[in-house]
Amino acid sequence: MADDGMLLNFELGDAPLTSQVKFKGGRWRDRVRAQKSVNKPAAPAAVTAADDLHNSSRPTKRPRTDDDDGPPARQFKTAKPLNAPADKAPSHAMKTGQISSGLFTSNPAAVTSFEKPTEEEEPAQPSNAPLSDEAENFLALGLSRRVAQHLATKLEMKAPTAIQKNTIPQLIKDDCDAFLQAETGSGKTLAYLLPIIHRIMALSLNEDGTSKDIQVHRNSGLFAIILAPTRELCKQIALVVEKVLRCTPWLVSTTVIGGESKKSEKSRIRKGVNILIATPGRLTDHLDNTKVLDVGTVRWLVLDEGDRMMEMGFEEDIRTIINKTREAPLQKQNREGVRLDGILPSRRVTVLCSATMRMDVQKLGEISLKDAVHITASKSEMENDDSGATEAAFSAPAQLKQNCIIVPAKLRLVTLIALLKSTFARKGPAFKAIIFISCADSVDYHYALLKDTAVPEPPSPDAAPVKPSPHTEATVAPAAYITSPANPTVVLHKLHGSLTQPVRTATLNAFTNCKEPAVLITTDISSRGLDVPTVDLVIEYDPAFAVADHVHRIGRTARAGRAGRAVLFLLPGPEEGYTSILSSATPVAPQLYDSVLQKGLATAVHLPEGKLEDETEKHTWTSRAEALQLHFEQRLLAFAYSEYDENAPKISKKDKYAKGGKKEAIKPKDNPLLDSARQAFRSHIRAYATHVRDERGFFDITQLHLGHIAKSFGLREAPGGIGGGVAKRTHRPQDTKGSTNATGNSRPDRSARSAHAGKAGDDDDFGVVDETAARRMREKMMGVMNAASEFNLG
Question: What spans are recorded as compositionally biased (Polar residues) (predicted)?
Fold first, then answer.
């Protein structure tokens, strides 16, 4: 056959031939992005993870590279020739086909210089421990022998603390107002309680300890009122009063707080009470409506945690209480004819207690105090509170060790688990830790995420039956992820102000009396005055809304001379400067997150329901962290029902027309844990915008990477519904529905007002496509934040 003269000539060039890659599975948006990335020219070689840590600004997304420090990068499923060998997918690969961004890429760099740890110095002497001088005892301070012996034998308190040494003689001898200021855990409660009980006992006892002819009892009158901001603190003060009054069984104390029956409280007041512990709101109610509450014999009004009461909006209630007690005529003798003058103060004495002296405390002092004496732990600082113009902040105990972990947002969750896992990896006495989180929704989510979902084994027939409390079924559970061979059981607790009062009381009692290692996830409702024994570690997973709250948070450990440790989580960038304004007796040592991950993820992690990945045994700590994060994301993406059920029951004709005239398949239903994570994310962002104005330079909401913050909640992308605008245009309706502002305070209408934060921009991996609109929303959101008044979320 003759040649027809047609010649095909193609210029192939020197580049190697590449086959066309076709992506399958996953979402169509992800496939389009991946296809575009393949068609782009080759990018320069990717930098290493070590070089990436030095990037100061938020870098753009770049592809992961395979290295020895982590698992291979995730890829789409591509079409291959029929004769190509099949490769085995990594054990941690997602089954959904979606892309998961790496934990160790595109993270902002920390500006703090991490120096090598120096040799540990000798531990500091406790600053809030009882005095060691043998001559210093409660009897020498002027207390009766009966009370001093009761403290030494029954309560095992043989020596007072510094604040007690300076306060007790002052309140016994003089009848002037007092302002008690000392660091947390120093014994301020007993400092004002012991003089009050001593002088009330003197109505029934002579100086030699013998009984008088006429003894006071519960119907002899109300002599002291103690106000506290929270119900938990009232319960704790009542417990201390009850322990001290065991040496005087004829005296009675009780509480009137919110969340309990007012009818039963009125009944107790009608029977008679000598010392009343109350929250301001409930006491104001009883003063207005309970006629049997007579304040004519009241000689002491104690305002405990005065700064907190002012923050929570109790100023008007406190004014009402002070005015009603001062307006009532002072009775010189009670109804039984017992003379009160000469033994009890001749005037009404007001005692204000606070660990800090801020402007709101000074304002409360102007309302309540007259010619007050300022009493501190150091005698040289004691002086009459005439001007009150200076503002002082008391530091944490000297024996408290403080660390701050600089951790990127994407690594917050795995770093928290690594810290807890390494903490409970050693065997010893019952170890307890408290984790402070900004809002109640986030507390609920982290509790549900960290608890063990495995069904407990039934007890043996020979074992004694244990009846669980019905109030703690939803707040106490065994923990997963953080257990170890040394401590195979760790009990998880949660506490916030949105719980009912019986649940709050039962949960706090369960945590206090727990004999096993325990963790309490809570809001700021547990930051004031609570004295839980053997709390060795306090973790501020979310920084406090003000420096004063930080001091009270870390004061839950290192109490009464015991050792303790506090850890603060901070994001790289502006938040690192927050440590410069923390006044403390011990410096806050910075620490990089990698040391925490290496120590905590050195071994495999116990997953819920007894699942344990075999592949984690041969992973490095970086790959184990990625596998753990991937596990959380898979838990949140699990649906309650399949997308289509062939065995679905048939629909009757009546229901058939109501459902559109055809049989419908069962649609997928979101995991409740996923809904909880989305709600926790929204509340967390709103709470982040409520830092006090002076500290917003460190906690700038415009600097937050919402996509990375979403990773810390186990989410693939940042949900909408934070403030509106761009969120409504780029997300589905079910993601943009509004959410209530859940606070951890017992009185949310007084302590907080709703704040809204717009959705900040994010990269393509988290679903935001309009960066300009996102930037406008951030600017609009900050305008709203600056115009709104400051408030705290419990």
Answer: 97-106, 736-746
Half-sphere exposure at residue 692, Cβ-oriented, CA atoms within 13 angstroms? 12
Q: What are phi and psi of 656, to 5 degrees?
A: -65, -45
User: Using an 8 Å Cβ cutoff, are 794 and 745 in contact?
Assistant: yes
- In terms of domains, do 210 and 335 share one? yes
405: enclosing H helix or E strand: strand 400-406
pLDDT in tens, 510-540: 998 898 999 999 999 888 767 777 888 999 9
Verify that 155 and 279 share a domain, yes or no: yes
Which strand ranges, in their side-by-side order, compose the sheet holding 588-592?
Answer: 476-478, 491-495, 518-522, 432-436, 535-540, 564-570, 400-406, 588-592
Q: Are residues 593 and 721 in the same domain?
A: no
Rg, the chain, Cα only: 31
Whole-angstrom Cα distance, residue 303 to residue 362?
A: 13
Contact 452, 477 (CB under 8 A): yes
CA separation for the pair 91, 644 (Å, rounded): 27
Question: Which pLDDT score, from 0 to 100, does residue 348 have?
Answer: 93
Q: Which of 52, 50, 56 is nearest to 574 (CA)?
A: 56
Do both 600 and 662 map to the same domain?
Answer: no
**d(Cα 77, Cα 93) in Å, to the nearest integer?**
11
> How far apart are alpha carbons 200 and 204 in whole angstroms?
8
Same domain (yes/no): 564, 487 = yes
What are the residues whose beta carbons fall under 8 Å from the beta carbon of 766, sequence distance 6 or more?
A: 706, 707, 710, 716, 717, 718
Long-range CB pairs of 700-704, under 8 A, 24+ apart, other chains included: 700/574, 701/757, 701/760, 701/778, 701/781, 701/782, 701/785, 702/760, 702/778, 702/779, 702/781, 702/782, 703/573, 703/574, 704/409, 704/760
- Same domain for 491 and 417, yes or no, is yes
Residue 656, pLDDT score = 47
464 within a domain of the structure (yes/no): no
pLDDT for position 312 = 85
Q: Domain range spanning residue 764?
A: 621-638+673-787
The answer to the question of residue 119 being in a domain is no
Assigned token pair, 514: 């727990």
Find the distance separating the first CA and the last CA of the chain, reported in whole Å. 92
- The conformational region for residue 424 under phi > 0 = left, psi -120 to 50 = alpha, else beta, is alpha
**Confidence at residue 158, expressed as pLDDT on a 0 to 100 scale:** 82
- Considering the domain architecture, whether residues 655 and 683 belong to the same structural domain is answered as no
Strand locations in 635-779 (E): none
CATH code of the domain in which 365 resides: 3.40.50.300
Do both 491 and 437 map to the same domain? yes
Q: Does residue 101 belong to any structural domain of this protein?
A: no
The domain total for the chain is 4
How high is the mean pLDDT in each 10-residue block of the chain (794 residues)? Answer: 52 55 73 77 46 44 44 41 39 38 84 61 57 71 91 87 90 92 80 94 81 83 94 90 92 91 93 95 94 93 88 90 92 84 89 77 86 78 41 60 92 95 84 94 96 70 60 92 90 94 91 92 86 86 90 81 87 91 75 91 78 57 89 83 47 50 54 93 94 91 93 92 49 37 36 34 34 46 39 35
pTM over 0.70: no
In angstroms, rounded to a whole number, what is the distance separating the alpha carbons of residues 175 and 63? Answer: 74
Choose among 269, 268, 335: nearest CA to 297.
Answer: 335
- Whether 233 maps to a domain, the answer reads yes
